[in-house]
Amino acid sequence: xxxVVVLFAALVIAYLFPKDNFNYDFAFGxxxxxxxxxxxxxxxxxxxxxxxxxEQARVEKAFxxxxxxxxxxxxxxxxxxxxxxxxxxxxxNTDSNAVFKVKDSVFxxxxxxxxxxxxxxxxxxxxADEHKDATGASIHTHVFVKDGNRVSERxxxxxxxxxxxxxxxxxxxxxxxxxxxxxxxLVSIVCESIDPNVLFDKALSDKILSDKLNAIATTxxxxxxxxxxxxxxxxxxxxxxxxxxxxxxxELYQKQGSDDAQNQWGGLTVFIGHFFLALLVIxxxxxxxxxxxxxxxxxxxxxVFLLLLIVLFLALVRWGxxxxxxxxxxxxxxxxxxxxxxxxxxxxxxxxxxHYAHLVVILLTGFIVPLGFDFLFLHLVAGxxxxxxxxxxxxxxxxxxxxxxxxxxxxxxYVAIQLLRTGNLQDLELSAIGWLFINxxxxxxxxxxxxxxxxxxxFISSITLIELSDPHRGILKELSRKAPGTYNHSTQxxxxxxxxxxxxxxxxxxxxxxxxxxxxxxxxxxxxxxENQKSGINPHDDLPPMESARIIIGHITNGIELAKxxxxxxxxxxxxxxxxxxxxxxxxxxTYLRQYPDNKEYEKNFSYPGPLxxxxxTAILMMADSIEAASRTLNDPTDENINNLVEGxxxxxxxxxQFQNCPIxxxxxxxxxxVFKKHLRSIYHTRVxxxxxxxx
Length: 696
What we know:
696 residues, two-stranded antiparallel sheet
């Protein structure tokens, strides 16, 4: 099943890889650090998007809009003027002081018609809003006017077409020299009656502008097959169109990759190549687990979690690449919080696995992002800083310190890279620092995911372990009150276990907390355990050996039930289950044999149910528990006696095959022995004997 999971992860990762084969990172003005590139086939050079956009902008700026001439408007306006003039004269004739003669009426009408002819001979234009500035003036000096099938270019304003808003002023100026001022009502009649006969033709303008834009050439020459596009060490710039050539080749690869993936066998071959690359990287990671972290490799749940986390993060990276391609924000990928993966994995599995997992993510990301070594280097260093600074992060203040160090690593790395590229800080993009700051904020949010992942996958983090190690809360407080001898024993075992675990690179905090809780089952009947007997009265003296063994062994099941009631994590309950393995309650078994030498078949009644320790941490606790308890019986704690005690107990565990299910080595055991001996010497203060003379 594990290998099926590995294959499936490799398939998903291969699917996330981009479908093209153009894996070069370049930018305008930078040095080409790759090998010489020759054209693999004949292709056209596409204009740079900025150059094409500038050319389009020039066309749009020079474009003159199209208006249409309304033929019926002048006739309608003439009729309207004459009608209003007639009505006005009739109204004035009713006044005895202002009687118009027929010849005067005819003169006024002829004058109004003369103005009408002059106005519409020039044309009256109603400018569209987009063709006026803030003051209402025309932004175009000339426009095209369509009259039937004919199109002519006409000037806007004097001496060309009149703007609709200028009609009243024009009429007032005209009538001032022709008509008596008492008869200037002609101005108001004309202003009210004249309508524009030149109107904006948006549909025609848009069509002609679109045709002009479409007519702009998007290419600027061709590159012939085997022609050198750019040589190693050359600058990517406008000289010989190197930047446009590279961009054109990249776009062709992307298009061909997409077409191949859908229609041709070429896409399948690319996918197969990606699959084997992904499989190689993932297999190396799994091989590392199977060799150096066997407990994680053998736990399918943990293996699935690690691979799922890697796959999901690579999917996030792929999504970020697509967003960048759409938005065009070059620094957008720097916002992806690569430090999230090592932080989460270190919280559950330790620094070694976090280092390898982060390296796997960086290696696979190199095939997804369209950026080069600089990008990967920056995130690789930041991830290593995240692992190191999170090694002892137990409180929120530690997390903020870690985030600050990560941000500092990002900024220093980015500035150093820019100095190498440009040689000065003037070209430093301050917006990039902003992206990196958002990155570390998202990284800080990763700490909020840890409790959620604990619940979903049954893991345990350092934060939870620190909370569980508080002696003033929960079951530990009850243990110290009801069974103080056991509490003291557990505390000493925790100190020994933590030191031993740290010495061999195991999870020291987990071992310590497991040791604190391993004997909580003794709360049920504390007086039956010797460390809690104060008066010298031993209740086992009045019990048969088998009953005494049942009570002693029962602290395991009692402890498991109590731990589940207290909702302790399974990782802690495992220490309770395994700290005696399948060993015997030796004292009661030998007592029973003295009484019933022929009843050896009842040996199982004097043996713990197990299971055996399954990890280095649980194995350390088994050794520390037995050694600490036995050390209390030492009457003469000399170096020799301490050495014999530690060696004898651990050798007994090995002889009883208690460590056959856990990945602890003989080298680890030898290191653990040294730690235990050193601890016991410090407790009993063994010193070298000195010869003290009377002179001293």
